[in-house]
Design a protein that fits this description.
This protein is an alpha+beta fold and 182 residues long. It has two domains: 18-113, no CATH class; 121-181, no CATH class. It is 34% helix and 19% strand. The protein contains six helices and eight strands. Strands 4-5-6-7-8 form a five-stranded antiparallel β-sheet. A three-stranded antiparallel β-sheet has the order 1-2-3. The chain is elongated and about 65 Å long. It starts with 22 loop residues before the first helix and ends with a helix.
């Protein structure tokens, strides 16, 4: 079911997790519900699920919720925490909107900002990557349903590799699979 566009322009499908969208994409897919007789101003919803309470209405409240989602994804990907398997890193574009979080979570941010290996091309920074080499190449991309990364290797006989939390882990899995098959 498409998410409600709070601006009233068009219903649009939410194509990723909140932390993987830019703020503009997030704002179009999220809904903010004002609260009455509550300590907070509003509650923010994304794809029908609550993202929690915020201290402002409109763009200010949506920005607070979006930043919190990016922050939490980076926090759970930090080396000092025990991340659950269902936490996915923000996109490069979403992270770029909050440079203070890059400083705060430098190690997790480095995972997001990592460039693809030599010989690979990106559709956008941190996005789909391709390599035409018939042995070492393939496609590395992220699902729109849950943000997991997958690899479609070019090397004959290698299966599709799925379920990676980061693009970097997907590249590592491809390299390991190629090493073991040669």
């Amino acid at each position: 079911m498409p998410a409600f566009d709070p601006i009233g322009v068009v219903p649009i499908p939410a194509r990723n997790l909140p932390q993987q969208l830019t703020f503009i994409e997030f704002a179009r897919a999220a809904m903010i519900k004002p609260l009455i007789n509550h300590g907070r101003k509003a509650e923010v919803f994304f794809e029908g699920e609550s993202l929690g309470f915020v201290d402002a209405l409109g763009d200010g409240g949506l920005r607070q919720a979006h930043k919190r989602e990016v922050n939490n994804a980076l926090y759970w990907a930090s080396p000092d925490t025990e991340a659950s398997s269902d936490v996915f890193l923000p996109s490069v574009a979403a992270l770029a909107e909050y440079p203070e979080l890059v400083t705060l979570y430098s190690e997790a941010a480095a995972l997001v900002q990592s460039a693809p290996p030599e010989g690979w091309s990106e559709s956008e920074p941190g996005g789909l990557a391709t390599n035409v080499d018939l042995i070492y190449g393939g496609i590395v991309d992220c699902t729109i349903q849950n943000g997991e990364w997958f690899v479609v290797p070019h090397l004959e006989g290698l299966p599709v590799l799925e379920g990676f939390k980061t693009r970097s882990l997907a590249f590592d899995a491809l390299n390991n699979a190629i090493e073991h098959s040669l």
